[in-house]
Amino acid sequence: MIITNINSSDLIDYKNVHPKFGEAFEIIKKLVNENAPDGEYEIDGKNAYAFISSYETKTEEEVNFEAHKKYIDIQCVISGTEVIGFENADEVKLIEDYKDGNDICFYELNSDYDKVILNRGEFAVIMPQELHAPCLSVKNIPGNVRKIVVKILAK
Question: Where are the beta strands (DSSP E) in 97-155?
Fold first, then answer.
């Protein structure tokens, strides 16, 4: 997992992690700066795409950990603040495995997990199989968030 900011000078170091990262970082900057509307944005067909959504963050009781097999997530907060939880798969119980060709499975949210708070312009790069619980409220108090998520085919 990588945590950084869209204006950070360290982005140049992360561009080499995956061939699509440089393009993804530029698209994130462009869509954030243009205040693009909610919706899906094609980057490279099923290889890379983005979507912007507005929502109210959730309490811990409403969220589970999730993981993906095929796609890397880059989740960047456009406005508001949210918590993303992280945990090892061997620490939690699988509650819904991958099915019907979907690239998502779910695990129970335990009471003791690592947390990262993301503010405007900050993002998390979440690799396949990394358990994460996005959309969590700060101090379990719901708030409004607008976020862009870029999905990049890992292989």
Answer: 105-107, 114-118, 122-126, 131-136, 144-153
Question: Per the structure, how many domains does the chain have?
Answer: 1
**What is the sign of the dihedral through the CA atoms of 27, 3, 90 and 136?**
negative
Closest by CA position to 80, among listed 120, 109, 41, 44: 120
Q: What's the rounded Cα separation, in Å, for the pair 131 and 106?
A: 9
Tens of pLDDT, residue by residue, the chain (155 residues): 899 999 888 888 888 889 999 999 999 999 888 889 999 999 999 999 999 999 999 999 999 999 999 999 999 999 999 999 999 989 999 999 999 889 999 999 998 999 999 999 999 999 999 999 999 999 999 999 999 999 999 98
CATH value at residue 56: 2.60.120.370
Range of the domain at 145: 2-153
